[in-house]
Design goal:
Chain B: This is Branched chain keto acid dehydrogenase E1 subunit beta. The complex is a heterodimer of chains A (about 400) and B (about 375). Chain A is α/β, with parallel strands linked by helices. Chain A has helices at about 1-30, 60-85, 105-115, 125-130, 135-145, 175-190, 210-220, 240, 265-280, 310-320, 320-330, 340-360; strands at about 35, 40-45, 55, 95, 100, 120, 195-200, 225-230, 235, 235-240, 255-260, 285-290, 380-385, 390-395. In chain A, helix 3 packs parallel to helix 9. The longest helix of chain A is centred in the first third of the chain and has 28 residues, at about 1-30. Chain A is globular, with a radius of gyration of 23 Å. In chain A, about 55% of the residues are buried. By secondary structure, chain B is α/β, with parallel strands linked by helices. Chain B is built from 16 helices and 14 strands. In chain B, helix 5 (about 75-85) packs parallel to helix 11, helix 7 runs parallel beside helix 8 (about 155-165) and helix 13 (about 280-295) crosses helix 16. In chain B, strand 7, helix 11 (about 220-230) and strand 8 form a beta-alpha-beta unit. The chains are: A alpha/beta (about 400), B alpha/beta (about 375). The interface between A and B is large, with 54 and 57 residues.
């Protein structure tokens, strides 16, 4: 028995040491960076677009891979927890788009193109962005399960997650776009060279308030990057049946636009850098359309196959999966090895497991907090409950 | 503010001195807290969200309308829409995702039966949907617009209140959009959180020119919806989404009408009057039964059905306010936005209603 224990401990310590020696070996055998060609973007009212080649360093590549894998695993875990009824309510996953592949490239690529001091606001498919904007998976999953360890103290849920310089997480479609224009105004006013990324979907692109926001942003030259994540379906309605013009990057009319391959993280990154530079130079707003796809349905209550075929989903999944694309690129250009990426997978999986454990075990917020944060007030006031005898305190 | 934030509210009125019961005098914080055990106290039980806060009580099978069929609420709605489109060649149904059947399956099969010119999807634009619906109605065609969730009706609030409601009045009866009906899933569902649970009828309840209707059951829904569609005034028909599948009863296959602006007394009583609409009717039916059994109190239960214009005569006679033994009590959702994790506490379930009733009697 003791011999076995000794052998086991040797193996375990050996495993612990492996990464270190791996890294030493890695720096000797891997390239530092590689140049890739990316798709040219379609342009609207722009003379030049983002570059068609980009350099990816090994460090960045590993970082993006880890982030994308984390977002994907996190969404898959959320899916699992939802099916176990540990997460209740509405859960809009962004794999593919929000949860799953597809949209991972969007949130990681966008983050790669801006600074942490820039601002971002999006609609309800927000889990990936919450992570890329700096919150931990623990806080996100705990918010989904409605526990006090969640980023909104358990009071927001899936659609209402917030972080520094990340304004959510908004349930009403399209309502976040005028907000984004307002944030951009604040950026311009503060004079710190910050921009605001305002995201919305192909469904929301037909809301009236979007056009009101376009007008204001263009009129006042606000540093606002409007980003339309076109995943081809607004809930159950395909873009052809919802929009008179599916060229969402042109819908800003007087606002210049570009159409980007949203499945390729490098394409997204370059386009974002281009757009951010445009805005920072004071030229006003710009519009980006990210062509992406969602594997899952619109939300957990939508199977996602009553308005499209399974073959379509399968085809996109096998040909344009962003994580797969990045992995192939890195391995083929000798930026990383398959084993190294597998190791990242394992670490990410563990991190998600731990976070899920926490999210399941953490207690729910206390009942007293039901009335908190309605207003901002000095003396706490009383909130009427279901009848005139039930009162709750409201504190900010 | 509470009215605005309310889920189906209900009024409670004491008409005669209640029975003296051997119950304890309860202070404000006593019983409610007892019932509102915080989730952490239950540990594992908190993981499993409890069953619905009501039990649907079907009405007896109607005999005066011909052959009936077992239907749930969304099937009753589909049946009403089917009848409408068959009877009225100008009727059209539109809204987000209605073509494949709708997110709650209320329009399943209608596009195949009546064609894509009469049942079609709109883009995602509530203000546009209602404005467009008003336009159709003004030409005389029958427009049945769907707003996917009542929570999303607010971009269309201006069109409803400022355009639809005032059309006939401001044109001196030259024009009207009376053939417009807006239907929308409504009310809490157990896990909807802030934006899939709201009951906004109170916002519209003070707008002359429109009618607001909330049914409690499949049989009521079909009759009331057909009345709304045929009514020559713009109507908003809120469908309690939690009842779409939970409520099943025998519903006539042929079209029939239930008159608007008429409340229904569904239980006779002499001590206390309980008024509710939508899902809450089933909650207070149970409360009335509990009150009879445990307190010997005889409760009258009224389903208001039409919120605007409401049936004042059934609910209160002119002199009634002089004869009340206790102030009217309003039991509803909390004065907070509809919460996410706190939903079970927010909902005015039968215990909160029963508690309020006890306090009323004790007044």
């Amino acid at each position: 028995m003791r011999k076995m224990l000794a052998a086991v401990s040797r193996v375990l310590s050996g495993v612990a040491q492996k990464p270190a020696s791996r890294v030493l070996v890695a720096s000797r055998h891997f390239a530092n960076d590689a140049t890739f060609e990316i798709k040219k973007c379609d342009l609207h009212r722009l003379e030049e677009g983002p570059p068609v080649t980009t350099v990816l360093t090994r460090e960045d590549g590993l970082k993006y891979y880890r982030m994308m894998q984390t977002v994907r695993r996190m969404e898959l875990k959320a899916d699992q927890l939802y099916k176990q009824k540990i997460i209740r309510g509405f859960c809009h996953l962004c794999d593919g788009q929000t949860l799953l592949p597809m949209q991972e490239a969007c949130c990681v690529g966008l983050e790669a193109g801006i600074n942490p001091t820039d601002h971002l606001i999006t609609a309800y498919r927000a889990h990936g962005f919450t992570f890329t904007r700096g919150l931990s998976v623990r806080e996100i999953l705990a918010e989904l399960t409605g526990r006090r360890g969640g980023c909104a103290k358990g009071k927001g849920g899936s659609m209402h997650m917030y972080a520094k310089n990340f304004y959510g997480g908004n349930g009403i479609v399209g309502a976040q776009v005028p907000l984004g224009a307002g944030i951009a105004l604040a950026c311009k006013y503060n004079g710190k060279d910050e921009v605001c990324l305002t995201l919305y979907g192909d469904g929301a692109a037909n809301q009236g308030q979007i056009f009101e926001a376009y007008n204001m942003a263009a009129l006042w030259k606000l540093p606002c990057i409007f980003i339309c994540e076109n995943n081809r379906y607004g809930m159950g309605t395909s873009v052809e049946r919802a929009a008179a013009s599916t060229d969402y990057y042109k819908r800003g009319d007087f606002i210049p636009g570009l159409r980007v391959d949203g499945m390729d993280i490098l394409c997204v990154r370059e386009a974002t850098k281009f757009a951010a530079a445009y805005c920072r130079s004071g030229k006003g707003p710009i519009l980006m359309e990210l062509q992406t796809y969602r594997y899952h349905g619109h939300s957990m209550s939508d199977p996602g196959v009553s308005y499209r075929t399974r073959e379509e989903i399968q085809e996109v999944r096998s040909k344009s999966d962003p994580i797969m694309l990045l992995k192939d690129r890195m391995v083929n250009s000798n930026l990383a090895s398959v084993e190294e990426l597998k190791e990242i997978d394992v670490e990410v999986r563990k991190e998600i497991e731990d976070a899920a454990q926490f999210a399941t075990a953490d207690p729910e917020p206390p009942l007293e907090e039901l009335g908190y944060h309605i207003y901002c007030n000095d003396p706490p006031f009383e909130v009427r409950g279901a009848n005139q005898w039930i009162k709750f305190k409201s504190i900010s | 503010m509470a009215a605005v934030a309310a889920s189906a509210g209900w009024l409670l009125r004491l008409r005669a001195a209640g029975a003296d019961g051997p119950w304890r005098r309860l202070c404000g914080a006593g019983l409610p807290r007892g019932f509102l055990q915080s989730a952490s106290a239950y540990g594992a039980a908190a993981q499993r969200r409890q069953v619905a806060h009501f039990t649907f009580q079907p009405d007896p099978e109607p005999v005066e309308y011909g052959q009936t069929q077992k239907m749930n609420l969304f099937q009753a709605v589909t049946s009403a829409l089917d009848n409408s489109l068959a009877k009225d060649p100008t009727a059209v149904i539109f809204g987000e995702d209605v073509a494949f059947g709708g997110v709650f399956r209320c329009t399943v099969g209608l596009r195949d039966k009546y064609g894509k010119d009469r049942v079609f999807n709109t883009p995602l634009c509530e203000q546009g949907i209602v404005g467009f619906g008003i336009g159709i109605a003004v030409t005389g065609a029958t427009a049945i617009a769907e707003i996917q969730f009542a929570d999303y009706i607010f971009p269309a609030f201006d069109q409803i209140v400022n355009e639809a409601a005032k059309y006939r009045y401001r044109s001196g009866d030259l024009f009207n959009c009376g053939s417009l009906t807006i239907r929308s899933p409504w009310g809490c569902v157990g896990h909807g959180a802030l934006y899939h649970s709201q009951s906004p009828e109170a916002f519209f309840a003070h707008c002359p020119g429109i009618k607001v209707v909330v049914p409690r059951s499949p049989f009521q829904a079909k009759g009331l919806l057909l009345s709304c569609i045929e009514d020559k005034n713009p109507c908003i028909f809120f469908e309690p989404k939690i009842l779409y599948r939970a409520a099943v009863e025998q519903v006539p296959v042929e079209p029939y009408n239930i008159p608007l602006s008429q409340a229904e007394v569904i239980r006779e009583g002499s001590d206390v009057t309980l008024v509710a609409w939508g899902t809450q009717v089933h909650v207070i039916r149970e409360v009335a039964a509990m009150a009879q059994e445990k307190l010997g109190v005889s409760c009258e239960v009224i389903d208001l059905r039409t919120i605007l214009p409401w049936d004042v005569d059934t609910v209160c006679k002119e002199e009634c306010f002089l004869n009340l033994e206790a102030p009217i009590s309003r039991v509803c959702g909390y004065d907070t936005p509809f919460p996410h994790i706190f939903e079970p506490f927010y909902i005015p379930d039968k215990w909160k209603c029963y508690d309020a009733l006890r306090k009323m009697i004790n007044y």
